[in-house]
């Protein structure tokens, strides 16, 4: 009994030791897992400085044949504005078409205007008929009155003779008072009739009985002229020659007078715009023409200087330069960049950065300058190219560290570490 109890106690003791070892191993595993998770969380929550490669801004000698990058823009931009309102009946041009001044771009429905024009035409025709008839009636009436006046004048001559004879006979007692009074009345009546006819004729000759009708006809003519003008406005035409870069109306759409229906950019000539440094501006002053080249072509073209600012722009520390160039085949298009050949001889010390350092955003160029462990994003003005180096006319200083690799992941004021 004692041996058996001792054996049981030994087995129980071994089980307890095995269980404790298992529990200890599990606890260690849990703690290790928690520690690893904690480390991962710390790593995930604390992003370190970004690794970059840098190069120094260097001074190097370049041929002093100063070049300047410039932008091609439309010489002018004109809005297509409707002068009349209505439904679009027909669209004749589309976006991107080359148009000449006066070309019809689209037509508006002119049905109502044509109907009004026909109404006015019929009204004028009716008024003209009235005018012609009234004019003829006036001529006829004048003729009748002139004849009447002539007859009355002859009649009065006879009546005056008769009256004079009757008056003498009455004085001699040969005729009665009634006969005398009758002769006198006939003469007075004829004279009154003559006076009336003469006044009527004078009134016809002094009064323009056709004035009202003429005014109505003139008013109708003006209305028809207005309608003709509006009919011309129903054809929306190009106000200038160029490229139709925008055209908004579609067939069936209703537009109002004054609606901006499209945009035409004048591309011949074309305008060239550049922001030049003070030294480059000195090379330009006094010149009428400047040569330029298009990337990918060795052909030298010529542009005329139209404007060079007298005062430097303080934000960009540059002078505005504008030129115009003939562009009959429209090969030069807005958005393209060209290189202006500003001239100069010999060699010149210039600041340069590697081409790889440049970050382009739209028409602007930037670099990231590393100072300590922080990068600064700066806008730079570019000049000539020599191999893989690019002249920088403003924005950086000699010896500054410029990021040449990894800058695409950077933002202004980011922290960075050099991994060259």
From TrEMBL:
Annotated ranges, domain CusB-like beta-barrel: 272-344
Give an example GO cellular component term for this record.
Answer: efflux pump complex
Q: Where are the transmembrane segments?
A: none
User: So what family is this one in?
Assistant: Belongs to the membrane fusion protein (MFP) (TC 8.A.1) family.
Q: Where is the YknX-like C-terminal permuted SH3-like domain?
A: 350-412
Q: What is this protein called?
A: Efflux RND transporter periplasmic adaptor subunit
The answer, when asked if Cell membrane is one of the entry's keywords, is: no
């Amino acid at each position: 009994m004692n041996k058996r109890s001792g054996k049981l106690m030994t087995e129980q003791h071994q089980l307890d030791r095995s269980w404790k070892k298992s529990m200890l191993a599990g606890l260690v595993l849990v703690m290790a897992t928690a520690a690893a998770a904690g480390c991962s969380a710390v790593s995930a929550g604390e992003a370190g400085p970004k690794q970059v490669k840098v190069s120094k801004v260097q001074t190097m000698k370049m041929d002093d044949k100063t070049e300047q990058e410039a932008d091609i823009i439309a010489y002018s931009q004109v809005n297509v504005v409707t002068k009349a309102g209505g439904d679009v009946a027909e669209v004749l041009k589309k976006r991107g078409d080359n148009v000449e001044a006066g070309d019809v771009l689209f037509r508006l429905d002119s049905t109502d205007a044509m109907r009004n024009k026909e109404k006015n035409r019929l009204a004028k025709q009716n008024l003209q008929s009235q005018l012609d008839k009234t004019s003829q009636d006036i001529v006829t009436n004048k003729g009748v009155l002139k004849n009447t006046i002539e007859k009355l004048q002859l009649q009065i001559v006879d009546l005056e003779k008769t009256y004079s004879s009757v008056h003498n006979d009455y004085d001699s007692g040969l005729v009665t008072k009634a006969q005398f009074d009758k002769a006198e009345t006939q003469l007075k009546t004829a004279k009154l009739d003559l006076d009336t006819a003469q006044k009527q004729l004078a009134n016809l000759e002094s009064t323009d009985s056709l004035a009202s009708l003429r005014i109505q006809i003139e008013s109708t003519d003006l209305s028809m002229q207005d309608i003709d003008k509006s009919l011309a406005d129903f054809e929306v035409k190009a106000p200038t020659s160029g490229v139709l870069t925008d055209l908004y109306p579609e067939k069936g759409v209703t537009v109002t007078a004054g609606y901006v229906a499209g945009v035409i950019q004048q591309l011949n000539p074309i305008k060239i715009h550049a922001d030049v440094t003070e030294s480059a501006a000195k090379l330009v002053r006094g010149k009428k023409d400047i040569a330029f080249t298009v990337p990918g072509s060795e052909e030298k073209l010529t542009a005329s200087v139209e404007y060079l600012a007298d005062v430097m722009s303080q934000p960009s520390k540059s002078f505005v330069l504008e030129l115009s160039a003939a562009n009959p085949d429209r090969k030069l298009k807005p958005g393209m960049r060209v290189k202006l050949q500003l001239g100069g001889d010999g060699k010149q010390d210039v600041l340069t950065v590697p081409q790889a350092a440049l970050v382009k955003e739209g028409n602007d160029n930037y670099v990231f300058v590393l100072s300590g462990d922080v990068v600064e994003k700066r806008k730079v003005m570019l000049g000539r190219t020599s191999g893989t180096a690019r002249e920088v006319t403003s924005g950086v200083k000699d010896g500054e560290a410029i990021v040449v690799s990894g800058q695409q992941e950077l933002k202004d004021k980011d922290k960075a570490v050099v991994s060259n």
